[in-house]
Amino acid sequence: KLSWDQEQRPYLESSRRLAMLIQQKLLGTLSWPSGGVVQADLYLLRRVRMPAVMVELGSLYHSGEAAELQKPEFQEVVGRALAEVVIQYQDMQEKEILGPDTEHEATGGKQ
């Protein structure tokens, strides 16, 4: 049986890049402090064979954060920010996989 880090090893750098993009976007979107990007052996990310991150937006035990987390406006802003990052990350991955020459050929020379 492989350990968590052995199963995730091929994706650790990609997961870190995704986490950094999410952190940057949320820091620019929210006025909350960041706990940073931390690599950890989390049950929900074990055995995931793709880049994976967990985003912690706040604590329900903190009354101010709990109130904000429940607001539909807050949820909308965070949801949009996360969706934008996923699209940005996917674009970056596709360009990295294809490379500039292959991408040019795949689009028939059209950008």
Could you explain the architecture of this structure?
This protein is an all-alpha fold and 111 residues long. Helix content is 59%, strand content 0%. It is built from four helices and no strands. The longest helix is centred in the C-terminal third of the chain and has 35 residues, at 72-106. The chain is globular and about 40 Å long. The N and C termini lie far apart (46 Å).
Task: State mean pLDDT (0 to 100 scale).
Answer: 82
Instruction: Work out the helix count.
Output: 4
**Main sheet specs:** none
**Beta-strand residue fraction:** under 5%
Q: First CA to last CA: what distance?
A: 46 Å
Secondary structure elements and pairings:
Elements: H1 4-8, H2 12-29, H3 63-69, H4 72-106
Helix pairs in contact: 2-4
Give a quick precis of the structure.
By secondary structure, the protein is mainly α. The protein has four helices and no strands.
Provide keyphrases for this structure.
111 residues; mainly alpha; 0% strand; disordered C terminus
